[in-house]
Amino acid sequence: MERCFLQRYGNPVTHYAIERMVADNPLPGLVIHDRADQLVAFSEGAAIAQAWPQAQFIATEGLGHGGILRDPEIISQVVAFKQRHARPAPAADRATALAQAPAQDPAPDLAPDLAPDLASTAILAEAAGASQPLPLG
Description:
Helix content: 40-55%
Strand content: 5-15%
Number of helices: 6
Number of domains: 1
Distance between the termini: 19 Å
Largest sheet: 2 strands, parallel
Strand order of the largest sheet: 1-2
Order of helices and strands: HHEHEHHH
């Protein structure tokens, strides 16, 4: 598999490890991971937070993979993180962005089980004040 990945993408699989990508990220980040997550090992979330110098890690219990997006306590913590760390855009930029935003679901073709991951990524990127996603290379 490693050889196929290297041939197809030009880099080994480890080149795309999230821990590697966030190691030099100067922005604050929020990593939330549930110990009962059946899709992604808890140790993965902990490793990302450990590698990210400005990350805050919140471990949850009993929420599973997508439950963090519906938990009132976690939502409050995400909002508080955003309030502490977000850099507000100038009012004109916000108005322009809202006017240009699509009226429909931005990812209608995604499987429903992927939507929580997409939403959490957007929340955390916005909370950190990122204007661009982290580079993949």
